Amino acid sequence: MRTQVAIIGAGPAGLLLGRLLEKAGIDAVILERRSQDYVLGRIRAGVLEQGTVELLDKAGVGGRLHAEGLVHDGVEFCFDGDRHRFNFRELIGRTVTVYGQTEVTRDLMQARDASGATTIYEAENVSLHDFDSDAPTVRYTKNGIEHELACDFIAGCDGYHGVSRASVPEGALRTFERVYPFGWLGILVDKPPVADELIYAHHERGFALCSMRSPTRSRYYVQVPLGERIEDWSDDRFWDELRRRLDERAAEALVTGPSIEKSITPLRSFVAEPLRFGRLFLAGDAAHIVPPTGAKGLNLAASDVGALAEALIEHYVERSDAGIDGYSARVLSRIWKAERFSWWMTSILHTFPDTDAFGRRIQRAEFDYLRASRAAASALAENYTGLPL
Ligand code: RFL
Ligand code: PHB
């Protein structure tokens, strides 16, 4: 089999890239290790930047997103019981949209199925070859039979644990990492959200987040130490802990119920440099990880592939490699700003085992400054709603 661009991974990065290329008449095949249902079963991100929404519109998959997504003008921070709303629309004229990653994935998969583009699910033992030449190939096994896919370019969109970054020769890649000493315990519940917008709460017992997927489905998180076991967290224990970290008004308004999903995510910052090796490109979680506090992971994946699609279109349509040559530097500049913002949100909102009384006063001063200064609040708004590429 032959294609122009071989895409590894059918997460949001791979699917959106495939769709943007298809719209420009460029052929791409997606190889995905898991089944379609498995990919759709993963509960992850929920907040889309305005630029991500625009890109999904450009990909022709914005219909349901505009009908069902919830446009939020701002978010709330709650510090030790004091709540403050940041109104992004009023501050900088931008908003975010609450629409689950699962739904984005479903919309992209449906568009791909409808157009007849090839996606190979349950592709095992994917391996990347000769991407330092003009004739790269990808090999994989499907139902016990070995296949080879010849291509012009390989897009590594296979997440943090994927094969693409691991295929880069040692010494060609520099990595930067920060591992946080805690994780997020998240639950999904079919009950109305506690408030109209998201609440990010700082409390001496730890961080908490009240989010949502729809007017009838809520997503809540509490910070937990690393090594915590999910079996030790009954729904009742989760609700008690969440309530204690919120202000009185939110604690009283909280509607609880049986969880329909419960999982723990460790928090990490990670960046690989560069993001191009000959004819192999890395994009999305394969290239970088952010802690979820700034709601940036899915959005960075989208902006990476937006830039990669532009570069590949330039190569095929305008016969210029300027975009390909500039891809890594262009996206890394935005990636590092999102890394900074996610690290900053994480550091002011969580409790750290080694934070002393001075550190806690600094966290409080950050909140008081954000509340008092339009400039500081605008900086938050600008970053949360998404910086330009
Ligand atoms: P994905 O989604 O991990 O997809 C990669 C795909 O590659 C496949 N794969 C392989 N395929 C073939 N061969 C191999 N060897 C392969 N190895 C892996 C995998 O099966 C998978 O299908 O990466 P992608 O596309 O880069 O997308 C990134 C986003 O999924 C991620 O950044 C976000 O979910 C992060 N994130 C959030 N991002 C936001 O923008 N806003 C949020 O509100 C937000 N909340 C979150 C989050 C992530 C979370 N978790 C669980 C990590 C909340 C949570 C709890
Ligand atoms: C979510 O709804 O899952 C979510 C929202 C905001 C974040 C992280 C996760 O910062």
Automatic annotation (TrEMBL):
FAD-binding domain segment(s): 2-342
SUPFAM superfamilies, per database record: FAD-linked reductases, C-terminal domain (SSF54373), FAD/NAD(P)-binding domain (SSF51905)
Protein origin, superkingdom: Bacteria
Keyword Aminoacyl-tRNA synthetase included in the entry's annotation: no
InterPro entries from the UniProt entry: FAD-bd (IPR002938), FAD/NAD-bd_sf (IPR036188), HB_mOase (IPR012733), RIFMO-like (IPR050641)
Top-level enzyme category: oxidoreductase
EC code(s) of this entry: 1.14.13.2
UniProt keywords, alphabetically: FAD, Flavoprotein, Oxidoreductase
Gene3D superfamilies: D-Amino Acid Oxidase, subunit A, domain 2, FAD/NAD(P)-binding domain
One Pfam family, short name: FAD_binding_3
GO MF entry, a single one: 4-hydroxybenzoate 3-monooxygenase activity
Protein name: 4-hydroxybenzoate 3-monooxygenase
Organism: Microvirga arsenatis
Higher taxonomy: Bacteria, Pseudomonadati, Pseudomonadota, Alphaproteobacteria, Hyphomicrobiales
